[in-house]
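Holo prediction — magnesium ion.
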Amino acid sequence: MKRLAILGSTGSIGQSTLSIVEQFPERYSVASLAAGRNVNEAFAQALRWRPRLVSLATEELAAQLSAKLKEAGISGVEVVYGTAGTVACSTLPQADFVVSAIVGVAGLEATHAAILAGKPIGLANKECMVAAGEILTAAARERNVPILPIDSEHNAVHQCLRVGAHAEVKTIWLTASGGPFRKLPLDQFASITPEQALKHPTWVMGRRITIDSATMLNKGLEIIEACRLFDVTAAQVRVTVHPQSTVHSLVEYVDGSILAQISVTDMRLPILYALAYPERPASTLTFDLATLSHLDFEQPDLERFPCLRLAYAAAEKGGAHCIALNAADEVAVEAFLERRIPFMGIPRTIEKVLTATPEAHPATIAEVLAVDGEARQRATAFTEQ
Ligand code: MG
């Protein structure tokens, strides 16, 4: 029985993880939940799963949850809050596996603490790898802690890498759906609204990641994530636009063989893979090959999607530039959703922040967070101009 700490339990990955626990009660149970701001959902989850520990974003929200639990006559569920609360969830001695699915750098400290505590990680939080990948992977290697990617592309790459040696890998091909604007003429990009950008053709996801898919900054973050997770250079990671999102990614080996992973477009599968690794439990998440008529692959258009170019530049510089890329994007996406900047203001803001960011290679999580804070300030200033 694996006892899970789920960081980001009320988000889409957290909820999918809980549905896997529901399907495999003999394999998984819930030790702790870090839930953020949704008190009602956290209450429903605490009621259903009876974890030892639940963390919410603030003291006030934690007090609300405690009161609700008391009213319902539930005891034995401790409620904590803030970063310290999330860290308590991820390092709980009764947890054997940590699902890291808090969006943004908010989950960074808890993920790092879990690695230091020797807990295997199922990583859905790509921002952690982008901002602090060098620190996290070094700590994991030192302690022999597995980091299993839940991000569908990296999960596919992880599967394809199991058949060859590291030195035999030539190129990691990340597939991208291309988002809703793959075919939109460039001159119409200026008038894209948040409503249009929030409509993703294949995946239903959180708001930031959906906008990041529309700008392809998400793929940019995934390039950096792949470099860190699989210890390859940015030049070894390439992007191919694959609108069907059926091939989740590919690995090209030096002999010319290219291996692809194909499965249903459902995040429960990569979650199950990460939770069960190295086993493969039988599941109902099947893909009917007979329904597949064709697979398309195209080169990404860097003019429409300047975020990809910016991400490659940041990946090559590493350190502070990767942190700034992620931080600036988060601020810019928020500004776009609040209609304070246009769609193409997102890459423009990121580019300005990257230009203003001095090269540096933070060695601690505190330094990472400091660089992150500076980049956010710069981005906020640029979005308010
Ligand atoms: Mg992905």
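READOUT: The CA atoms of residues 47 and 72 lie 9 Å apart.
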